Backbone:
């Protein structure tokens, strides 16, 4: 047996053939993340090597798998081997090709070994049309549907839209084939809306969904795609933005609750209104001794919950503190309920007051710059509080 060579660094980004993206999306969340990492690990040697290997601990770290239960990894590998890649669901040529995603897999002595079929290796090694997937970001979304939607949309980043695709085809692409999704309302609420919110909060693209109806029935869905500088946690872009964020009430309150400065800044960049509301809600419950766990953990669960942050109507610990919390919650509710026309009117007022709105997009009603968004939200909160 030859000595084992050192593990080469795995690229942080995967150039993934679109045929491997626009396929029937029956992979589980763990399986989809694992396949992406296995492909990235083998990409440079797809044609020169039949069998590839990766240490189990590195594979686990790359897919965000914290359990020591190797059985779950084995189950995921088995699941991948059972899945068939059908080429390319978005092409209507009538031709059809299919192949198993993995031809072989094994876990031995802390190493994961695997093989692609020669046909699949040839297809994936020459991606004339490909998209780039950030492997670090894929750990941040919460579910398989969101990751599948991200992969199917990020390819169209340059053109800004997926174009209209039938509801039936979106279900196949995302793997939402359960009978409960036969009714569009359930598919839209549980798959589309939740996935879009997940992607917009955590990923490097921002999606806006549009529907096409026939006789009041939704038959096609399109996603508009923009760069999402607010959706990717990381180092703030410049000193001015960092100082502006640190000067906000949301940052002061979140860090006082024990949230780390980097995470607090990330939340404020993503959604300053929700960050402030989560801090105020947690603060209010703390003042009434209703939180027994860690305040930092509690405010995180509030912020990351898909639900609306409730107004605090219970009796507060003190009249002035309660009034402040209720007023802030009411302000947040008023901001959330602004119509598109009202928000545009406030943007114009903010511009007249000297505010910078160079990245404002009237189509989405959003400011793409984190700096401008935080500044506008701070101004808007004060404006509405005065009213």
Residues:
């Amino acid at each position: 047996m030859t000595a084992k060579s050192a593990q080469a660094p795995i690229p942080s980004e995967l150039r993934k053939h679109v045929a491997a993206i626009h396929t029937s999306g029956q992979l589980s969340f763990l399986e989809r993340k694992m396949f992406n990492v296995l492909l990235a690990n083998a990409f440079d040697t797809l044609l020169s090597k039949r069998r590839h290997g990766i240490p189990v601990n590195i594979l686990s770290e790359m897919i965000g798998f914290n359990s020591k239960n190797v059985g779950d990894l084995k189950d995921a590998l088995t699941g991948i081997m059972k899945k068939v890649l059908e080429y390319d669901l978005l092409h209507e040529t009538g031709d059809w090709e299919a192949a198993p995603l993995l031809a072989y897999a094994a876990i031995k002595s802390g190493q994961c070994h695997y093989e692609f079929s020669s046909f699949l290796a040839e297809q994936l090694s020459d991606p004339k049309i490909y998209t780039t997937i950030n492997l670090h970001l894929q750990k941040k979304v919460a579910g398989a549907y969101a990751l599948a939607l991200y992969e199917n949309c990020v390819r169209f980043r340059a053109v800004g839209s997926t174009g209209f695709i039938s509801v039936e085809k979106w279900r196949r692409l995302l793997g939402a084939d359960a009978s409960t999704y036969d009714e569009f309302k359930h598919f839209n609420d549980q798959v589309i809306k939740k996935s879009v919110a997940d992607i917009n909060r955590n990923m490097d693209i921002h999606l806006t969904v549009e529907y096409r109806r026939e006789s009041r029935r939704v038959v096609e869905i399109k996603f508009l795609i923009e760069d999402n500088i607010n959706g990717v946690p990381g180092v703030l872009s410049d000193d001015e933005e960092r100082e502006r964020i640190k000067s906000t009430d949301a940052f002061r309150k979140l860090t006082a609750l024990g949230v780390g400065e980097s995470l607090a800044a990330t939340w404020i960049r993503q959604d300053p209104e929700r960050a402030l509301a989560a801090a105020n809600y947690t603060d209010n419950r703390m003042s009434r001794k209703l939180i027994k766990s860690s305040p930092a953990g509690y405010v995180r669960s509030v912020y990351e919950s898909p639900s609306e942050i409730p107004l605090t109507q219970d009796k507060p610990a003190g009249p002035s503190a309660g009034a402040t919390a209720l007023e802030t919650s009411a302000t947040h509710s008023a901001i959330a309920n602004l119509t598109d026309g009202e928000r545009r009117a406030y943007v114009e007022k903010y511009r007249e007051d000297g505010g910078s709105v160079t990245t404002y997009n009237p189509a989405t009603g959003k400011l793409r710059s984190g700096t401008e968004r935080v500044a506008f939200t701070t101004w808007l909160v004060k404006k509405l509080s005065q009213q």
